[in-house]
Amino acid sequence: MPKEMLMPVMAESIVEVEILKWLVKEGDAVTEGQNVAEVMTDKVTTEIPSPFTGTLEKILAKEGSVVTVKAPIALFAGAGEISAPPAAAPVVAPAPVAPAPAAPAASSATDSAVASSYGMNTKAIAIDFSNTAKVASSSSAKTAGVNKFGRPLAVPAARKLAREAGVDIMEIPGSGPNGRVGVEDVKDYVEATSASTYGGTTVIPSAPSPAPVSPVAAPASGGGMTVPPPQYRTPKGLEHLETRTPLRGMRRVISNAMVASHLYTVRTLTVDEVNLTELVALRERLKPAAEKAGVKITYLPFIFKAVASALKAFPNVNSSYDEATGEVVHKRYYNIGCAVDTEAGLIVPVVKNVDSKSILEVAGSISELAGKARDGKLSPDEISGSSFAVTNIGSAGSLLSFPIINAPDAAILGVHTIVDRPIVKDGQIVIGKMMYLSLSFDHRLIDGAEAARFVKHLTRLLENPDLLLLEAI
């Protein structure tokens, strides 16, 4: 019998992996330790080796699919072996974003009309009121089981059905081992919750069909509605002027992260300007010594050190909200993510323990991580564990931006282009090296006044960089 190659565990926090490319094809002879596939895990691309010597008989997980760790992805056979029919690798949907809660409509007829007009196939499920009592009683006692990373235990088909029905899979009691949610659990839950509120038949939308999309107003009564994603339609006669590529790899990871940030943070912005005249002069004086030490020194190391000081003074900014437990997590470590623009997309490697490193050490870490990011050689540990992030959009010439929070961090700082601007100093008009600082923050965790004071703390240190020597950071 052939041997199954399982998706290896990359790191403790990684539960899903995307197959980017197979480096060998079916029928190829492979030796143990030979790299056979290129995969992506949370913006890190790596190659995985074969655990066997033999022939790659069957690829179970195609390029572009997302599979769970320890799932079978290929079959290997030795000389003279005959394979059994292969089982497909468990494929999961691209990194989930929590569905908006669906508000029940006034009637199943209205639901069907709305869904049909959005190009969605629907199927009516008759309600068994015995299920209502069963689900209601079990729901009060338990919800879906979770793994050690807080992810609900559920089969892929159940996740898909829950998303389409607009329900939170964490609220569904699972009947499988360790509380794993199955398809029937989702159906029972949807039927029961719909029946307990309105009675009658509920409609669960299946995958969208390519039918044309028509604008539909929300029903006048019976509550709101969950609007499906917009469906793109090629303008008639322009098909030859379009090309389509799958949303895969880094772009898909970035897309999912952006949607998660939008859904799981209440983002707002505070802006201040800082006079960097003294810092510009200090950097010029330090550049020769830094170059002798083999380090290219930019403004970011000074900004990182000032941020570490401000995070200590304002601990709410150095926090996260644990959605699963409803707890605010305050962190006593100062790991700062540094957004790096690469050909593949934006990556945020993390400089660890900024508070305990010197300016030169921080500069060296930033340079090393940025180089690895551009070469695609970051490890999972180097892009995880941040408590705050900084994005240097000024390197692209931006005067001001509203950065997207790198969830689950509570805030991100945008630094921008340094420009010469006339300012008043000691009653005289002089030219200052001015820059805007923009802090995006989660208003659930940080009040506006606190965010403004945080930025003022940064401004004080950056305008008087000698003070960094007195901060003991």
Nearest-angstrom radius of gyration?
Answer: 27 Å
Question: Main beta sheet: strand number and arrangement?
Answer: 8 strands, mixed
- Give the structural class: alpha+beta
- Shape call: globular
Q: List low-pLDDT spans.
A: 79-141, 196-224
Mean pLDDT: 79
How many helix segments? Answer: 9
Order of helices and strands, N to C? EEEEEEEEHEHHHEHEHHEEEEEHEEEEH
**Beta-strand percent range:** 15-25%
Strand elements, count: 20
Detail the topology: elements first, then pairings.
Elements: E1 3-6, E2 16-22, E3 29-30, E4 35-41, E5 44-49, E6 54-59, E7 66-68, E8 72-77, H1 108-117, E9 120-125, H2 129-141, H3 156-165, H4 183-197, E10 202-208, H5 249-264, E11 267-275, H6 277-292, H7 300-313, E12 319-322, E13 327-330, E14 336-342, E15 345-347, E16 350-351, H8 359-375, E17 388-392, E18 411-415, E19 419-425, E20 428-442, H9 448-463
Parallel strand pairs: 14-17, 17-18
Antiparallel strand pairs: 1-8, 2-4, 2-7, 3-6, 4-5, 6-8, 9-10, 11-20, 12-13, 14-15, 14-16, 18-20, 19-20
